[in-house]
Design a protein that fits this description.
By secondary structure, the protein is of the alpha/beta class. Among the domains are: 219-310, Alpha-Beta Complex (Flavocytochrome C3, Chain A, domain 1), CATH 3.90.700; 405-526, Fumarate reductase/succinate dehydrogenase flavoprotein-like, C-terminal domain (Methane Monooxygenase Hydroxylase, Chain G, domain 1, Up-down Bundle), CATH 1.20.58.100. It contains 13 helices and 22 strands. The protein has helices spanning 13-24, 58-67, 74-94, 126-140, 191-194, 201-206, 259-265, 286-296, 358-378, 386-404, 415-429, 436-454, 467-491, and strands at 2-9, 29-32, 48-49, 108-109, 119-120, 144-146, 149-156, 161-168, 173-184, 212-213, 218-225, 242-245, 271-274, 305-314, 318-319, 325-327, 334-340, 345-346, 433-434, 500-501, 514-517, 523-526. The strands form six sheets. Strands 1, 2, 6, 7, 8, 9, 16 and 17 form an eight-stranded mixed sheet that branches. Strands 11-14-13-12 form a four-stranded antiparallel sheet. Strands 3-5-4 form a three-stranded antiparallel sheet. Helix 1 packs parallel to helix 4 (126-140). The longest helix has 25 residues, at 467-491. The protein is globular. 55% of the residues are buried.
Length: 542
């Protein structure tokens, strides 16, 4: 049985940052991804927000809290934005080539949700370059990285982590991996709406009995190309691209409204993005231009682009504190040895909505905090739970064999149509505007979909590189997370940030708390953490 100080699940910026930081601190780190190595996070990232030209972090902090519907944990916000300039500096030192201004420092632009210019980036090359330099940091610090490793079960005793059961799709073996700490950083579950990949980590945690936080909130982008799965970076709006109705009239929103407001404004039919007047900035979006040309036949230098609102990332997830520790029910209780970072976590930075650039900031700062704390913790404790791991290994193998047996009776079900049905349910009933009737309908349909998924047919009954099996696991995880999302949305009877209830259109000051939901659908609450020195940094009437 392999034993590691820390196992990190994921391969995007948060996972890479956590792994490199933990290894640098002396921990023996295994980083595992259910995809091939290097796939990382290919989502449209809109830059990183940092107050590089501001004397204080106050404006960045206040913009974040307002966009978050005052549901942010304000001490976490203060901490994250204070680290933002440092994260930009580190990326630059490691090799990311940022756009620069006349003073030779990274260029910052005003972007969605910000009152001042603070979005730094490198056009559509930012996420590729960030992935590359963070991979190099992992290599430099001796992180062991493995692809095609599917986490099946998180093994624990009384909320004390012992390790993981995982499927190695390159050999077909199911393995028990002992670990002092596990960091979940494999992304969110926006694929429940979009049909793209769904991270397994949040579901893995929920199946231990851990309640997830604020699942009712999702971040929306107004720049999904209509009728496709192509999403354009919202940073293009900072470089001169504009949103219009099909008749040429501009979308009626205030300058640099947050992404939720922009998404609400693009729910009507016939909205287009005009990127024909970006000037010299157009060169920073060459790959986006190439994708539009080769895949869709659109020349963005000459044509407008039809766009609509789409979920871009989930904001809820595993509740964490400032160190990335998974919180169980209340702030004073830690699911010992379990951490989360990036989109898998609900760190408290975003609250009920997100401003441009804070997604990458949270991934980097949150990953760094989780990696460092986990390494320090692992240095002080011994390995545990070997017998429990061996027991769960046998159970996991039996469960896997049962799942691969396929449908024994009734109509054959396949992953593709079931994924399409999941997306249909979530987009039609759990979209930008929601109400009790639609949410109850969604819950009923998701329960039916879960039964169909249990009878799924797998064309391949081997364990070697079985993509059908992986999609089946992701589908089932997505359905469980979708059900928890609906239950969380039903419990919040108000409209706040990205959660808009047609039947409860007003904001309710009595619901200034985080929602917790477990795998059984039981709802509880978690208090919002106050600002520095126990006082609110910003209040709704400020």
């Amino acid at each position: 049985m392999e034993a590691w100080d820390i196992i990190v699940i994921g391969d995007g910026p948060a996972a890479l940052r956590a792994s490199a930081n933990a290894a640098k601190a002396g921990a023996k780190v295994l980083m595992m991804s259910s995809d091939s190595l290097g796939a990382g996070n290919t989502a449209a990232i809109d830059g990183i927000a940092a107050p590089l030209k501001e004397s204080t972090t106050k404006s960045h902090r206040d913009d974040t809290i307002r966009a978050g519907g005052f549901l942010c944990d304000q001490d976490i916000v203060s901490q994250r934005v204070a680290e933002a300039s440092r994260q930009v500096d580190l990326l630059e030192r490691w090799g990311v080539i940022f756009r620069r201004d006349q003073d030779g420092i990274p260029l910052v632009r005003r972007a969605a949700g910000h009152t001042l210019p603070r979005l730094a980036g490198a056009g559509d090359a930012l996420i590729r370059e960030t992935q590359q330099v963070l991979e190099e940091q992992c290599m430099k610090n001796g992180v062991v990285r493995r692809g095609d490793q599917v986490p099946l079960q998180l093994v624990h005793t009384d909320e004390q982590v012992h390790g993981l059961i995982s499927l190695d799709m390159s050999t077909g073996a199911v393995n028990a991996l002992q670990a002092k700490c596990v960091i979940i950083a494999d992304g969110g579950y926006e694929g429940a709406w979009t049909g793209v990949s769904i991270g397994l980590g949040a579901d893995l945690a929920m199946r231990t009995g851990l309640a997830l936080r604020d699942l009712e909130f999702t971040s929306w982008t107004p720049l999904a190309v209509s009728g496709t799965n192509v999403v354009l970076p919202i940073g293009m709006l900072s470089d001169g691209a504009t949103l219009h109705h099909s008749n040429g009239n501009p979308i009626d929103v205030e300058d640099f409204a947050d992404t939720t407001t922009l998404a609400n404004a693009t729910t009507s039919q016939g909205v287009v993005l005009d990127a024909r007047n970006m000037g010299e900035s157009e060169a920073w979006w060459d790959q986006t231009s190439e994708i539009l040309t080769t895949r869709l036949g659109i020349n963005m230098a000459r044509q407008t682009i039809p766009v609509s609102a789409q979920v871009s990332s989930t904001l809820g997830g595993i509740a964490t504190d400032e160190f990335g520790r998974a919180i169980s029910g209340k702030w004073s209780r830690w699911f010992t040895g379990l951490y989360a970072a990036g989109d898998s976590a609900c760190s408290g930075l975003h609250g009920a909505g997100m401003v441009a650039g804070n997604r990458l900031l949270d991934a980097l700062a949150g990953g760094a905090a989780a990696g460092e704390h986990a390494a320090n913790y692992a240095a002080k404790v011994e390995f545990s739970g070997r017998a429990a791991l061996e027991t769960h290994l046998g159970v996991a193998e039996a469960d896997l064999d049962f799942d691969m047996a396929g449908a024994e009776e009734g109509p054959v079900q396949r992953a593709g149509p079931l994924f399409a049905k999941l997306s249909e349910i979530m987009n039609s009933q759990v979209g930008i505007s929601r109400d009790e009737s639609g949410l109850q309908t969604a819950l009923e349909e998701l329960n039916k979909l879960a039964k169909s998924a249990d009878k799924m047919h797998l064309d391949d009954n081997t364990r070697l590189f079985n993509s059908n099996l992986l999609e089946s696991l992701r589908l089932k995880a997505g359905i469980r997370l979708a059900k928890a999302t609906v239950q969380s949305a039903l419990s919040r009877t108000e409209s706040r940030g990205a959660h808009q209830r047609a039947d409860f259109a007003e904001l309710d000051s009595e619901q200034m708390h985080h929602t917790l939901v477990d795998i059984e659908g039981e709802i509880s609450t978690l208090a919002i953490r106050k600002g520095v020195s126990g006082t609110w940094v910003l209040t709704p009437d400020a």
